[in-house]
Write a structure and sequence with these properties.
By secondary structure, this protein is α+β, with helices and mostly antiparallel strands. It has one domain: 3-Layer(aba) Sandwich (Aminopeptidase), CATH 3.40.630.30. Helices cover 47% and strands 22% of the residues. It has eight helices and seven strands, in the order βαααααβββαβαββα. The chain has helices at residues 14-26, 29-38, 40-57, 60-90, 97-101, 153-162, 181-189, 218-229, and strands spanning 5-8, 108-114, 117-126, 136-144, 171-177, 193-198, 210-216. The N and C termini lie far apart (49 Å).
Length: 232
């Protein structure tokens, strides 16, 4: 196992960070495509669509072309969802990481360096909700290169974000896809609780929804217990 170190982002890491972000994103395509294929309405469409087209048109050629085009369309749908997320991220918070993640208390972006390469990353930004009683920090863009997984890097990055309670935040929140099974297991092992599901605008087209998680930082748990018990 190659040694690694976690440190704050610097601009000379940008090429590595963007490359890792895009590379890990493509890993979600196969499992998302398989998920979409297995949805009941899509199975019906794949099985009966070409047959219905043949019955209407009487052309086996059209039916055969439809049997090829439908899976291709579903694969494009799976790919489009992740491309849309990648493009949005690269044009918002990740367009200028220094400006987005180093401009206010609690926000930060960390990278994992191993043998001169960036092999992992994670960001944290305050959740801007004026009516929120508890100050929340959002964990974003947790990524670890495939060849460096299984070394505890993801766990170390999440724990790095949780140290944010020193900055006065009481909760860490995040969202992840239902199909990212290893990520779901990791967050639950580290004490995160599932809040519910988040349905994006593309959910109706078959893309899997995201799950929202929350972790209550230690000092917030103590404060809540004191409030419930009437204080000291």
């Amino acid at each position: 196992m190659a040694p690694y170190q976690i440190q704050k982002y610097q601009e000379n890491y940008r090429k590595w960070v963007v490359g890792l972000f895009s590379k890990v994103m493509t890993e979600h395509l196969p499992i998302t495509f398989h998920h979409i294929l297995k949805l009941p309405r899509n199975l019906v469409l794949l099985l009966w669509g070409p047959l219905a087209l043949f019955l209407v048109s009487g052309s086996w050629v059209l039916a055969f072309m439809a049997s090829l085009a439908l899976p291709a369309a579903l694969r494009f749908l799976a790919k489009y969802h992740w491309i849309q997320f990648e493009v949005m991220s690269l044009h918002t918070d990740m367009s200028d990481i220094t400006k987005s993640y180093f401009s206010e208390s609690g926000s930060c972006f960390w990278v994992v360096e191993s043998e001169g390469q960036v092999v992992g990353m994670v960001g944290a930004l305050p959740v801007k909700k004026p009516t929120l009683w508890n100050e929340q920090l959002q964990l974003l863009h947790l990524r670890v290169a495939l060849e460096h997984r299984g070394q505890g890097i993801s766990k170390a990055l999440v724990r790095t974000v949780r140290v944010a309670w020193h900055q006065g935040y009481s909760e860490v929140v995040l969202s992840t896809s239902m199909l990212q099974y290893s990520a779901l297991a990791l967050y639950q092992r580290l004490g995160f609780w599932m809040m519910g599901f988040f349905f994006s605008t593309s959910y109706r087209l078959g893309v899997v929804p995201a799950i929202q998680f929350i972790y209550r930082l230690p000092f917030a748990q103590v404060s809540q217990a004191l409030e419930q018990g009437g204080g000291l």
